[in-house]
Amino acid sequence: MITKPSAKTAYTCLVIDDEPNHRHMLRLHLEDAGYICAEAANGADAVAQLSERSYDILLLDIAMAVMDGLSFLSYIRQNGDNTPVIVITANLDAKTAVSAMKLGAADYMTKPVNTDELLTLMAELLQAESPAQPASKSSYKFDGVYSAAGLGKIIEPLAMVAPTDATVLILGESGTGKELVARSVHDNSARAGKPFVAVNAAALNENIIESELFGHVKGAFTGAAAAREGRFSEANGGTLFLDEIGELPMATQVKLLRFLQEKSYEPVGSSKSITADVRIVAATNRKLEDMIAAGSFRQDLYFRLSVFPVYLPALRERVAEIPLLIEHFIDKYSARFQKKIKGAAPEFTKKLQKYTFPGNVRELENLVERSIILARTDMLTEELLPELSDANEARINSDATLKNNEKQTIIDVLKECEGNRTKAAKQLGISRRGLYNKLKEYGLE
Question: Which of 101, 330, 346, 385 has the most CB atoms at less than 10 Å from its CB?
């Protein structure tokens, strides 16, 4: 299905590629879709054409003999040209992808190009650039790695809701980055600089969760020897992030609903209402509609929480971001483990792009961290990766997969350190006591 370039009569596009056949093929498809196209044989040729006229979007090859794609991209950005650029190349490794994104590329695709996907991406980018769009994605601070066709799709709605005080409900599987998104909502609001308090409801004992959230007075229950302020008090003036909101007991749901309605709460054991200026951002990996039907989640609370729902796609739905995330985690863990890792081999990246990632970004991070620990050269190679489950098994055994990766990492590092636990703990970046606990947990004593 051909994606037309939207409301404008005809958008202009410059195709920059040193392969005449590929360049011409792209031009024909784009013109069929309604674009006005021109061609450039290399970066220098494109610079000359841009000096005479501007274009709405650029398609850019990387490997060109006369002024390669990265040099061209760097040049136009330094000269204030912010035209959207889609990188299209035959051999795109993680390092090149990250370099292109850092230089300002909107997204990237590999040859042979799926023209339907290309046209859809172009239409999305051009719509985002339209003056009719009130929100600016470029000004939105987000401490994460994403592409325009992946997680970047939620940046615009986030940019619109963040400055308000509306309640945000973040939906998505475990490990997709819900807390990262919640922090970005806080950081792009007037509450930035004020407290951001995160609470994981699943990690709290049902008997103490109300005290944890709302505080308690002295003598409120056995063991309450002194009064305690809760997380709502800590977050006053800022944002309270309630992760795993579906795990809240019904009694606590009632108190949370009251706060959302009246902006006040009562500490456990007290009849005195306390007013607090707290914005609520909640998250869950569960289907709250099913819980409502089952009677385990309040419908009125759901309506209060889902003023602005945001869905985070699973990593398997944004495969194009995997090379960017690999490079990000290489930078992170190379520094932590003081190892000079230049990047990932193409086979390493391709194997991970074929995997379904039941543990999402968190699982990818674990795999890259493990590979860096085991690496004996300055490149991450396919041999460093463990066996990865097929799609069906992976979805069923997501938690087991993560634990197996960690267990295997410990076994491999202990072998490398010839059983020296002190040395192994140092290489793993954990304490000796932490290593002993893990050995006990996995039956490796």
Answer: 330
